[in-house]
Every structure is written in structure tokens, then in C-alpha cells.
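Researcher: Sequence recovery benchmark, item below. Answer with residues only.
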């Protein structure tokens, strides 16, 4: 892949929009997003990985679900991709990429489907903060995944959820 210019996938110039970038160590992952093909926009399952140490790009394994407006977070030896929108609507689907074998696996879905949320990893837990629900309304919940048990719960509600709206 050409490190100096725009990327090309399947003969089409990459035009990502509303992706879920995240990082683990020296790698920056750009997952999913919208792709414009002529006049149509559609969700994609693409994964592009930028290596900061050698200034190079490579294609990662495709996600199980095409999505955009999702969040992602690195946790241990995994990259988690959470929620977002598909061409059918907002989803609670979660999948993770095991860096050891470059395979995606589905995990338990979030309690509330959201898009445009933020995510952070703290210890053995992932927190998904606010977002937009399936009606386009601001969701004020803080969802938590215990990575050891693969169980989600809602632990709090933001007093100022509109500040998280993108």
C-alpha cells in the first residue's frame, strides 16, 4: 500500500466518514464509517491500521458488521468496536478484534443501542458514555462492560448529556 498518498481499496479511493478511530500501542485503527460510491453512501466493515513507528498503512480484517458513527477502544490485547449505525439503523452490537490472531468475535450487546457515543477503558471495564438513541434523542446513560464476565449494565446517568452529543 502506498504510504505517501490516499489509499485504494478494491479499486476505489477510500473516502471514510464517521469512523471509529482508536489505538493500541503504536497502532491506530480506523474502523468502519461511511463510503460514498457515486451518489450513494453506505456503511462499511473496513479496517485500516496505521503504524506510527514506521509510517505505514495496512488493511486489517473486516469487521463482522458494517457500521458508522460507532465508538472503539483498545483494551489489553483487544480492540473493541461498540454500537453505531448500520444501513438498517442504530445497533447495540459489540465485537472485538484479538490482536494475537487477527480475528473478530462478537461479544454481549450493550444494554442500550447508541451511536456517536464515547468509550474508555479503565482496568477490566469499558465505559460507553451517552450517545444518540434509535429515535435520535440524546441518551444520558453510562453503560459499563465487565470484560471478565462479558456483562453489561447501566451504572449512571449524565447530569449534562447534551455536552456529549456530536
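Model:
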Amino acid at each position: 500500500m502506498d504510504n505517501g498518498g490516499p489509499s485504494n481499496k478494491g479499486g476505489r479511493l477510500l473516502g471514510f466518514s464517521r469512523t471509529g478511530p482508536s489505538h493500541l500501542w503504536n497502532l491506530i485503527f480506523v474502523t468502519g464509517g461511511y463510503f460514498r460510491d457515486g451518489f450513494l453512501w453506505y456503511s462499511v466493515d473496513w479496517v485500516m491500521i496505521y503504524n506510527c513507528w514506521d509510517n505505514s498503512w495496512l488493511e486489517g480484517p473486516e469487521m463482522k458488521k458494517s457500521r458508522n458513527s460507532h465508538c472503539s477502544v483498545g483494551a489489553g490485547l483487544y480492540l473493541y468496536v461498540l454500537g453505531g449505525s448500520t444501513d438498517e439503523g442504530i445497533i447495540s452490537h459489540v465485537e472485538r478484534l484479538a490482536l494475537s490472531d487477527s480475528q473478530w468475535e462478537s461479544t454481549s450487546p450493550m444494554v442500550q443501542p447508541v451511536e456517536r457515543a464515547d468509550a474508555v477503558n479503565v482496568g477490566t471495564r469499558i465505559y460507553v458514555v451517552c450517545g444518540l438513541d434509535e429515535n435520535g434523542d440524546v441518551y444520558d446513560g453510562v453503560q459499563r462492560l465487565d470484560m471478565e464476565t462479558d456483562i453489561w449494565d447501566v451504572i449512571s446517568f449524565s447530569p449534562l448529556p447534551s455536552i456529549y452529543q456530536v
